[in-house]
Amino acid sequence: MTDPILSIRGLTKVYGSGTEALKPINLDIRRGEIFALLGPNGAGKTTMISIICGIVKPTAGEVLIDGKDWQRNYREARKRIGLVPQELTMDVFEPLISTVSFSRELFGRRPDPKRIEEILRELSLWDKRKTILKELSGGMKRRVMIAKALAHDPDILFLDEPTAGVDVELRRDMWNMVRRLREDGTTIILTTHYIEEAEEMADRVGVINKGELILVEEKNELMKKLGRKVLHLQLTERLDAVPPALGEWNLKLSADGGMLTYEFDAKAERTGIPSLLTAMRDAGIGFKDLDTHQSSLEDIFVGLINHKRAAA
């Protein structure tokens, strides 16, 4: 395995009030991967990204970019990192092209009008290049934030809830661009509330809750390991309760008594379905339809968070 492009070691953040926003975080990000960081509001996602990007000072810990400490090599680190933050914060009276060009030079890159034009065209902003930022719609301002983050051609791009509250067209453009960036070798770390995006885009998934990184896993392995299937049985006649004869399958009965639900591991040697159907027949319980549902990344995420809360 190649050396990670980004290494996080013992990173913590405790505010003056005593609030522990980040418990010791240890994480390696691989060169050229898309890493999705998932977690509920207030879990510590933005705090972690803000520390790595030099916006917030950590209480303890270090961040290494290609093995170099990001505080001692601050200028180089900032040059190699791009950030699309959640909040739309821009100089509202600047023309669009001016603010994007300035972002490139701010990070020590030489002016490159051709590169700026490429970025603006890719984000459908070229026709608006002379427009004052104040006059742009919210969706267009979000595109400008992305353009500013890309202007200095960073090796590592942080996307903090980049598609929250934007239109479907921008989300599609955004993810097409992310795919192209990854093909060009850019490492991408994203946080998102749209878990289906992480399911589609990410190579690996991390789950953070209450400042603690509770899981880091290859997405496909996570889906195999924790993904389960659910069998729904639409009953011919409604039941008041699950009969004792079916107790070993841990069935759930719907509120209206018309459906039984059985959860099973699709990878297991024995799913238990044939014996369940036999037991239902013996008990005189008929069904008129059945279907199966594969758990999604969202199901897995919710299950992990609930399990952690129950254990706390």
Automatic annotation (TrEMBL):
UniProt-listed PANTHER family: ABC TRANSPORTER ATP-BINDING PROTEIN
The name this protein goes by in its record: ABC transporter ATP-binding protein
Domain of life where this protein originates: Bacteria
SMART domains tied to this protein: AAA
Domain ABC transporter span(s) in chain numbering: 6-235
Keywords, comma-separated and alphabetical: ATP-binding, Nucleotide-binding, Transport
Species of provenance: Sphingomonas sediminicola
GO molecular function terms noted in the UniProt entry: ATP binding
